[in-house]
Write a structure and sequence with these properties.
The protein contains eight helices and seven strands; from the N terminus they run βαβαβαβαβαβαααβ. It is α/β, with parallel strands linked by helices.
Length: 255
């Protein structure tokens, strides 16, 4: 990780859960991390904690609604002005709504597409532009995917969400191919966790908190820090090594 010290990383959805853990881990490794979310109060608190802990990097909170392209473009413009550009882009932000295919609301489907697929693609495009215009050929784009992007779970609540994560799997491989065609050494990786104990289930099943709690009580789940460790592992690989897809799930998880 030594070569990443002082470099700039963007982490989307950095206010809670996996995103917050990744942001903390990268700051600890000496990176300048721009952490974005719709609400930055928790990121500001995390930034203060990182500073108090004496971490060698810094965490810069940035308020951004990823369902709004103009806000994403403004964020990248601000990063260019203040920090020259992005060297590492971690597309972590994601949403899931309980909207089955037979009865779901279009607004819920559209929001999942906007955040999980379109925003990820915009951030990827803009990060690549940032790297290319500065002749950065060793950058890294990491998509935080899901095991739901590799198999469809037998739950109507999650079918549309799984579809968006299958899209992330396809987008990651498509990006790898386009980078090769461009003779770029920028790397792209997909990290696909199984069940991680975060606020995710409570947001997804907001009408049934007991069911959400039961998801995490059923087995020993992954922790956000486990995913952050996977990110640092991927980033620390030698520049000639491309780690394409990291699938990780709790030992006790069945599928």
């Amino acid at each position: 990780m030594e070569r990443w010290k002082g470099r700039v990383a963007l982490v989307t959805g950095a206010s809670v859960g996996i995103g917050a853990a990744i942001a903390r881990a990268l700051v600890q490794q000496g990176l300048r991390v721009v952490g974005c979310a719709r609400n930055v109060d928790k990121i500001e608190k995390l930034a203060a904690e990182c500073q108090s802990a004496g971490y060698s990097g810094t965490l810069i909170p940035y308020k951004c609604d990823l369902s709004n392209e103009d806000e994403i473009l403004s964020m990248f413009s601000a990063i260019k002005t203040l920090h020259k550009g992005v060297d590492v882009c971690i597309n972590n932000a994601g949403v899931a709504h309980n909207e089955p295919l037979l009865s779901g609301l279009t607004a819920g489907w559209r929001n999942m597409i906007d955040v999980n697929v379109i925003a990820l693609s915009i951030c990827t495009r803009e990060a690549y532009k940032s790297m290319k215009e500065r002749n950065v050929d060793d950058g890294h784009i990491i998509n935080i995917n899901s095991m739901g992007g590799h198999r469809v779970v037998p739950s109507a609540d999650e079918h549309f969400y799984c579809a968006t994560k299958y899209a992330v799997t396809a987008l990651t491989e498509g990006l790898r191919q386009e980078l090769r065609e461009a003779n770029s050494h920028i790397r792209v990786t997909c990290i696909s966790p199984g069940i991680v104990e975060t606020e995710f289930a409570f947001r997804h099943l907001n009408s049934d908190p007991e069911k959400a709690a039961a998801v995490y009580a059923s087995i020993k789940c992954l922790k956000p820090e486990d995913i952050a460790s996977a990110v640092t592992y991927v980033l620390s690989a030698p520049p000639h090594v491309q780690i394409g897809d990291v699938q990780m799930r709790p030992v006790e998880q069945v599928s």
